[in-house]
């Protein structure tokens, strides 16, 4: 399909890279609770979600990147990978240090 690799399973390295990327984006935006709740609620339909992303590929792929969307569809199509995303979000949120706006160090 459009010269994309949609059949080959993701390598463990690519899974880890995508999981880290998603978790980092969620934690950076401070959406941990909402994201974990959403992912937990939709874990039973992970396969359907992955297939939905695959079906939307021709429409959204040019905007986001077709291969990245195909990889995302393969990632979220597995309950185990959804659980990995949840665990990684929880791990990153514990160690996240928010940047304070309007404060400066050394002022006294």
Provide keyphrases for this structure:
mainly alpha, 5 helices
Order of helices and strands: HHHHH
What's the total helix number? 5
> What is the residue-averaged pLDDT?
90
Strand-residue proportion: under 5%
From the spread of the alpha carbons, the general shape counts as globular
Through-space gap between termini: 62 Å
> Which value, in Å, is the CA radius of gyration?
17 Å
Helix content: 55-70%
Strands, total number:
0
- Unreliable spans are none
Description:
The protein has one domain (12-94). Helix content is 69%, strand content 0%. The chain contains 5 helices and no strands. It has helices at 12-28, 32-42, 46-64, 66-76, 79-95. The longest helix has 19 residues, at 46-64. The termini are far apart.
Give a brief description.
By secondary structure, the protein is mostly helical.
List the helices and strands and how they pair.
Layout: H1 12-28, H2 32-42, H3 46-64, H4 66-76, H5 79-95
């Amino acid at each position: 399909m459009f010269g994309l690799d949609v059949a080959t399973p993701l390598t463990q390295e690519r899974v880890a890279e995508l999981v880290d990327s998603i978790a980092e984006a969620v934690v950076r935006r401070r959406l941990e609770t909402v994201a974990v709740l959403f992912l937990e609620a939709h874990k039973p339909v992970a396969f359907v979600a992955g297939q939905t992303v695959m079906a939307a590929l021709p429409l959204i792929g040019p905007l986001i990147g077709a291969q990245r969307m195909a990889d995302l569809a393969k990632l979220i199509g597995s309950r185990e990978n959804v659980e990995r995303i949840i665990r990684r979000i929880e791990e990153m949120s514990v160690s996240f240090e928010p940047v304070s706006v309007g404060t400066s160090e050394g002022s006294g």
